Amino acid sequence: MSSPDDRLTARRVAIVIGLVLATLLGLALLWAVRRVLVWILLAAFLAAALKPAVDHLERRFVRRRTLATLLVFLAAFGLLAAVGAVIVVPLVDEVARFVERAPELVRDIRAGQGRLGELVDRFGLRRYAESHRDELQQYGDRLRKPALGVVRGVLEAVVGTVTVAVLAYLMVLEFPRMSAALLALSGDGAGDRLRRIGRECGRTVTGYVTGNLVISLICGSLTFVVLAALGVPFAAVIALVVAVADLVPLVGATIGALVAAGAAFVHSPTAGIVTLVFFVLYQQVENHLLQPVIMARAVRLNPLTVLVSVLLAAELAGLLGALLAIPAAGILQVLLREADLPRRLLRRGT
Hints:
Blueprint: H1 4-32, H2 34-60, H3 65-111, H4 114-122, H5 125-131, H6 133-144, H7 147-186, H8 188-230, H9 235-245, H10 252-267, H11 269-299, H12 303-339, H13 341-349
C-alpha cells in the first residue's frame, strides 16, 4: 500500500508534467498562428499611430467616428498610393525603355561595342559565357522553378497588407467601445489610471512614428543632394525610394543604399563609388547618432535605451523586432512608471 507521501509526490509529478505539456501545447499553438499574431501586432501598431488623427477629426470637424475613421484611413492610404505612383511610374518607363533598347544592347555586347560591350570584354565575361554556356543554361532553367514561390509570396504579402489594414480600421473604430467596456470592468478607481496609461502609450507610438519620419526625411534629403550633385538621373525619385526604405530601422538605410548606389553605378563608376561611401558613412551616423537622439526626444527614452532595445529586438525578431523595439520599450517604461516599480525596488533595497 502506498503512503500519503508517495501519493502526494506522484500528484506533484503529475501536476508538473501537465504544466510542461500545457506549456508546450501553448507554444505550439502560438507557433502555428504566428502569422496571424504578427498581423494583429502590426495592425495594433498602425491603429495606435492613426488613432490620434481620428480622435482629432472626430472632436473638431466630424461628429461620427465611422466617417472620421474612414477619412483618415483613406487619406493615409491615398498618400501611400501617391508615393508608390511617384516611384513606380518612372520605374515602369525606364523598364519600357530598357526593353526597347534590349536588342541593341545585346548586339553591342556581342560586338564588344558601347559601354556595356567594353565592360564585358574588359572583365572577360563574354569568353566566360561562351565557355560555360551549358552551365548557364541549366542555371537559368533552375531559376524558372521558384517563380511559383515568388508569385505565392506576393499574393501572401497582398493578403497580409489588406488584413492588417482591415484589422487596424476595426481597432480604431471600436476603440471607444472596447475602452469603455474595460473601464467598466476595472471600476472607477482604476479607470483614471488606465486612461492615463492609454494616453501615454498612444503618445509613445505617435512620437515614434514622427521621429521615424524625421529621420527618413533627413536621409532622403541628403540622398537627393548627393545624387543631384553627381548628376544621377531621377535623383528625386531615388531619394524618395531611399526615404521610404529608411523607415525600417537598422537595415532600411542599407536597402536604400543598394538602390541608390546601383543607379549611380549605372550613371558612372565614380558616382557609384561616391554614393556608396556616402551611405556607409551616413548609416553609421544614423544608427549611432540620429536615431538614438531623435527617438530619445520623440519617445522620451534615453539614447542608450533606444540603441540597446533596437539591437536586441533586431537580433531576436529580425525586421519586425527592429520596427517595434522602440515603441515597445517606451510602452514598457510607461507601465513600469505607473506600477511604481523602481521606487518599490529601492524601498526593498533599503
